[in-house]
User: Fold this.
Amino acid sequence: MARDNSYWESGHYECMDEGRNLPSTIIAYQMTEERMLQQHIPLQTESILEIGSGTGRILHQLESRAKRIVGIDHAKEMLRSARRRVSDKVELIEAEAQSIPLPDFSFDYVLCLFNTFGNFEGDQNDYIQEMRRLLKTDGEIHLSVYSERARDSQVQLYHNIGLHPQAYSDRVEVKEGFTSRRFGENQLRKFFTDNNLEVRVHKLTPISYYAIGKKLGPS
Ligand SMILES: C[S@@+](CC[C@H](N)C(=O)[O-])C[C@H]1O[C@@H](n2cnc3c(N)ncnc32)[C@H](O)[C@@H]1O
Assistant:
């Protein structure tokens, strides 16, 4: 079945880049996430992939650190927006996060940030398996998500940028056409351990977690 990515194709999400009307908890989440990346991704890295790269916020910050840097997104409009922000060195590919048209063992780092993981439909394990497939041995997945305590921040963010959110116990559904889930620490840890990845989970801010998963074996 074709996925509905009409919201992500609308261009509306670009208003996030202006930074106006963002709740302070959301600004703190993004800033702390960016600091974690600067601390953990070496200055001279061979290869980085970002899944759901959006308007290129992260690609732009990391492109000078990597020999090869790739962003994938399922929305053409997001890829166009990222293209305006990053240099020609950055490869941008239109792809579904569940089936990325790149070979196994391609990257040292696979990133999935700012709760993009919580936007994915279906079984989240499928996406972790795809990230793992793309990693080299000893490579790392860096994944950040909303925590159990993010509900009010999610609702406030979507209201503030002119969307229509409806809150449920584990997610917010936005009428304009996407879902934003949130995760418990143990639930997040289990996605990694169930898929043969070593994991460390950091409490990033009160509303977010940052997990680093490592692929230990070659298989
Ligand atoms: C919340 S935005 C985050 C953008 C960027 N990672 C950042 O942190 O600024 C989520 C992005 O993931 C993309 N996305 C959502 N579901 C996807 C899927 N199944 N496959 C590929 N991209 C997806 C959306 O188009 C959007 O650009």
